[in-house]
């Protein structure tokens, strides 16, 4: 059954519906049944998918399904009456729709025709989709329905898997769990892992007694007593006391801090906190404060850039000249903001790495820009966070537990004026680093894209709430209303997104692995001697040949920053260029020296931030655009070839190990035969061609996802350009 998720019920359905599959013809359209459940909209058809040779299967979603939380806007059209309406929740529809267009948050547009369907049934299904995709209350999101069913039927499990817990990531050989940082011990382990001997786990917020937007456990300087923390907490916005994020091996700490609202106490408390941080540093170094609100784009600017990017990727016909398209891309400012986040984070890496000072990220509430900056700094400094389990633990620590407001920023309830895609911007920044240093990351760009998609599946508790306290409070209320016995548990346990087996088979999860990754335990054998991997200087610098001197070191002096016409080099805000002379020259020298050396993939990595080196993440933003798809092309062709080579190397290594220790490995053969790669070599010197189904959209398929041209036949076309969101209620003629 397509509705196998526990707690999923069919709300409404209509037969004889046509799903439009191509932009300029109806010959590929599919006939079937359109169904609205309390979890997703589903199109069930017996027709085979046209023009498509591959589909990446999600165990929770069929290939025509859209989760309700992924729906951005619902538009109903009546051709004959030339009427259209954006459907809000609890709205009436005075005409029978002949067409339904669904705009999705992942840039998809899905279109259904009701020419042969019963008019009343079509109207009912449209209203049901509008109602269930725009819930008025958090407890109406599907995760609550699922979890309620699970507690009442403990024997039932989604896809036969027990939810909750950290999940073993991608089923790596170690079967390592992702630390969720909900417990004292997870924080304590992180202190020990980073050698932060002068810091301690504080449990003053147990039961959320001090602050509802902080985790129950967090790390503070050992010299700060609980009593002082309680006292100081009243002076911070949201009572958000300073939070330790990470420690550098040289003793420098990374700390996040909200603003102090008590003006009279401001200097005194600030001094006390900074003194405590200084005392936690082995060299008693100074503290460097970075005011993120002054240095980085705010959440409204990031949201405005995202809306423009969405319009560009979805509404602009790709037949336009490249010149116009590139200038439109520049005008979105999306790439400019990515550069600013990367550049600012790299400057703070310099302060910790080279100046040996602790860095305090200051932000009004300390739960937006500081999530992004703290995470990027740690990805650049600590190779553990470039592994799959490490990266997942980083998101738990710096986003989920630190109180990033996923509910509001992802706008799951469709009524937040606080929507802003900071989490997507973080994943995009990480993708830029992955693109520049492919061998430094254990995960692939497919993993990052699917992680972004998973934030809009309302089954997982990971990205559903504004803070851990909200999960406990809301789920406890829900448990009482549904007569669920919680016992000792703090709130209900929701399925965790890190348990990837809920969504994908073990075979499909192999696509998350980056074949170029060189793990620490991957020595290569050369002339009989084992050597660890190091990129030669000549090999490295050749990638930068032809770049102007100012771009080679990733730092841009102002004269070099005048963009050529049509170039993608974007201007920085003036305040970024006006740094103090001393710090600036020392920093430039550090970057120059760093970029002159071969990269240590298990050390610091720094971003190239010149205009040409910050790119558009095509897999994420173009995957649903048929016109942008390159058959048998795109990065996946290199990914495929490298996978075969890496698989051959693995096979050789296994044979070598087996040869050296004949009998001792015999019992372990089945484990050795397991490849870590999705694409596998057929023996040595495999020269087989790439599979026919590879395209630049792989593993996604744009078939049946439409661009603007497809709707030119309807009166909608003239409303599609220039709307605030794709179609805003203001610009659409109201049906009344």
Structural summary, described in words:
There is one protein chain. Among the domains are: 10-134, Pleckstrin-homology domain (PH domain)/Phosphotyrosine-binding domain (PTB) (PH-domain like), CATH 2.30.29.30; 184-254 and 264-512, no CATH class. The protein contains 24 helices and 16 strands. The protein has helices spanning 119-132, 142-152, 184-194, 226-233, 263-279, 292-295, 299-315, 322-332, 334-353, 369-381, 388-400, 406-409, 422-436, 445-454, 468-481, 506-509, 537-541, 549-552, 574-577, 581-596, 618-622, 635-660, 669-673, 717-720; strands at 10-19, 30-37, 40-44, 66-67, 71-78, 83-86, 99-104, 109-113, 199-202, 218-221, 243-247, 253-258, 287-291, 358-363, 524-526, 529-531. The longest helix has 26 residues, at 635-660. The two termini are 41 Å apart. Keywords: Phosphoprotein. One of its GO terms (cellular component) is membrane. This is Myotubularin-related protein 10.
